[in-house]
Amino acid sequence: MTSGNSGNSALTGIQGMAWGQPRIDSVVPNVLPLLGGSVTINGSGFLPGATVQAGLTNLTGVTVNASGTQITATVPALTVGLFGITVTNNNASLLTVTVPGLLTIIL
After folding, report:
1. CA-based Rg of the chain, rounded to a whole angstrom?
2. What range defines the domain where residue 81 resides?
3. pTM as predicted
4. Residue 98 is part of a domain; what is its CATH number?
C-alpha cells in the first residue's frame, strides 16, 4: 500500500528538476511599494541562470538556491497594480511558468 500524496509529490519534484519545468508556489512579500524591493519566490524546478519577470519587467539580481526551490530577486520601480510573476529556465527548452496576480504594487 502506498502512502498517498507523499509519493506523488516526490515524483513530481523529481520530474520537475529532471526536465527543468519550474513551478511557483508563492512570492514573499507579495505586496511592495512603488519603488520595488526584494522578493523570494518559492517553488521547485528553478535552474541556475533562470530569469524572472513581474509583468513585462525583468527582475534583477536573480539568484537560485542550490536545491532549485527558491529564487531571490529585486523588483524595480513599477506602477500601482497586480503583476504576474514569470520564471523562465534558461536551459535548452526555455521552460516557463507564469502565475498571474502574485505581486501587488501599492502607493
Report:
1. 15
2. 5-106
3. 0.81
4. 2.60.40.10
